Amino acid sequence: YANVATIGLLVHGTLFERVYLDMEGAIQVGKSSESPYGTRNPHLATAGYLEAGYTHPGNVPFRIGLFGTGASGDAEPRDVPGNDRAVGFIPLFPSSHRYWGSMDVVSWTNLVSFGARAEVTPLSMLTIEMLYHEFYAADDRAAVPGIGQAGRPPLVEMGRHLAREIDLRLVLTPAAWAHAEVGYSVLLPQAGGEAYKGVADS
């Protein structure tokens, strides 16, 4: 129940031949409501992503990097006295393995996360990737899509540290027209994540 515009900027490049940099930022403006019958409140939300790392192009190419991402969350999107602005970022896509883990448990809203990436290409057609993620709620009173709702206001602070995730992925590219992946992921709920519905038994 939103009518918003998203303005974004994506930067990708290489510094000093071996240092890579990925940056993305977005701002949303417009009006939104949590129900079709509610008042459409002014909407202003932000999100961003940054990754930097080192690429080694030798006989066995490898890449290591660190990344961080964030997106605003809204504990009270309804029109109430003193709070008539919606600040929760509305994700444009439901999932992104690249940014927020292969398990797609979280999305780009009410999220602060950081982690590390390591990739090695022992064969020209085989790449092995490992990623480590730490997930936090930007506002621990707000809903975290994929993990659960904190309940109706007044909301209780649930704790910001939601979960850790480890991803292992093997990417096979035997030809320019053929691409296959196989992987394994594990999610480790933390104190904040366990306080949300449905995560303690994940």
Q: Can you walk me through this structure?
A:
The chain has 202 residues and is mainly beta. It is 4% helix and 52% strand. The longest helix has 5 residues, at 191-195. The chain is globular. The two termini are 30 Å apart.
Key features?
202 residues; 8-stranded antiparallel β-sheet; mainly beta; 2 helices; 8 strands
Please identify the structural class as seen in this structure. Answer: mainly beta
β-strand number? 8
- Supply the number of helical segments: 2
Biggest sheet, spatial arrangement of strands = 1-2-3-4-5-6-7-8
**Helix fraction by DSSP (H/I, runs of at least 4):** under 10%
Order of helices and strands: EEEEHEEEEH
End-to-end C-alpha gap:
30 Å
User: Shape, please?
Assistant: globular
Question: Runs with pLDDT <50, length 5+?
Answer: 150-154, 198-202
Summarize the structure.
The chain is mostly beta strands and 202 residues long. The protein has helices at 97-100, 191-195, and strands at 2-15, 19-32, 41-56, 62-71, 111-123, 126-136, 161-175, 178-189.
Write the layout of secondary structure elements.
Blueprint: E1 2-15, E2 19-32, E3 41-56, E4 62-71, H1 97-100, E5 111-123, E6 126-136, E7 161-175, E8 178-189, H2 191-195
Antiparallel strand pairs: 1-2, 2-3, 3-4, 4-5, 5-6, 6-7, 7-8
